[in-house]
Design goal:
Blueprint: H1 6-12, E1 32-43, E2 50-56, E3 59-61, E4 65-69, H2 76-83, E5 91-96, E6 99-100, H3 106-116, E7 117-120, H4 132-142, H5 147-160, H6 176-188, E8 194-198, H7 206-222, E9 226-230, H8 234-237, E10 242-247, E11 250-256
Parallel strand pairs: 4-9, 4-10, 7-8, 8-9
Antiparallel strand pairs: 1-2, 1-3, 1-5, 5-6, 10-11
Helix pairs in contact: 4-5, 4-6, 5-6, 6-7
The structure holds adenosine-5'-diphosphate and magnesium ion (MG).
Residues 43, 50, 52, 70, 72-78 line the site of adenosine-5'-diphosphate (ADP).
Length: 264
């Protein structure tokens, strides 16, 4: 793969749905956007060894919105970090559109993290002394986009999250709910296929939590995303297509939401 152009590399790791199929390095097409097989994560060793994820089998089809619930310390963040390739498993595999992330060289993993996945943290991690628009533009700027192009895309996304009027305001001056909406715009500015959110409403009061969740549902639908969010909030979780419970290192379905109740 050494001589491939960046565009070919992106296609090869499935960043575009038009990725060429059938080459030797592409496994048979799978209906799953993201999939895990016997995913295991152990922290520490010897007496301090802690098995956080035992053997997780997760299969997520395109367009699903999945909630992962579970007590604090059960491994929700650990699982999301493995799905985003922000950390590597002790054993087992994560597949993104049939490609095993663990087999990709670091440069391709960077493409995966930067372009295939949007990640929203509980705390927004915005740069407080940069404007809302600059924060949203940052992922594109860091990939070498021209400033005008990156800021243009950022403004469109701020518009989508209802914050075009705040584009020039410093991120540190925004309210908690506004900051989280900016963080969502930043997660989506690279137009990823997969949105991962780690307790995105955890720091917000009920009203703002509802508004941010509504926004994520709308963006999920309008941009044909596949979304996985960890949350403590059962009421919000049950508005997703599926709720999975993570406990004692295992992931189990809480129960399917009937097909007559779409995520809306
Ligand atoms: P949750 O997000 O469900 O609260 P986490 O994934 O953050 O759970 O943590 C699961 C367990 O793994 C916790 O006991 C935590 O202390 C431990 N843990 C998380 N990250 C690390 C790390 N980098 N090193 C050692 N232990 C960790
Ligand atoms: Mg967590």
């Amino acid at each position: 793969m050494a001589n491939m152009s960046p565009a070919t590399v992106r296609a090869e790791i499935g960043l575009h749905s038009s990725a060429p199929r059938g080459s030797q390095e592409t496994s048979p097409s799978s209906p799953f956007v993201i999939e895990t097989h016997e995913l295991r994560k152990v922290y520490g060793s010897g007496a301090s060894e802690q098995v956080v994820l035992k053997s997780i089998e997760l299969k997520v089809i395109e367009g699903e919105m999945i909630a992962i619930v579970g007590p604090s310390g059960s491994g929700k963040s650990t699982l999301l970090h493995l799905l985003a390739a922000l950390d590597m498993p002790t054993s087992g595999a994560v597949y993104f559109r049939s490609r095993a992330l663990q087999t990709l060289p670091e440069s391709h993993l960077e493409d995966f993290r930067n372009q295939a996945v949007g990640f929203v943290w509980q705390r927004h991690h915005l740069l407080p002394d940069f404007s809302a628009a600059e924060n949203v533009a940052m992922p594109r700027l860091m990939r070498g986009a021209k400033e005008a192009e990156a800021l243009g895309a950022a403004k469109n996304w701020l518009d989508e999250v209802g914050l075009s009027a705040k584009a020039r305001q410093m991120a540190g001056e925004l309210s908690g709910g506004e900051q989280q909406r900016v963080a969502i715009a930043r997660a989506l500015v690279s137009e990823p296929a997969l949105l991962l959110a780690d307790e995105p409403t955890g720091d917000l009061d009920e009203q703002n939590a509802d508004a941010v969740f509504d926004l994520m549902q709308r963006l999920h639908r309008n941009h044909r995303l596949t979304s996985i969010l960890a949350t403590h909030n059962r009421a919000l979780a049950e508005r997703c297509h599926r709720v999975l419970v993570l406990e004692h290192g295992e992931l189990m379905p809480l129960g399917e939401i009937p097909a007559t109740r779409p995520a809306h």
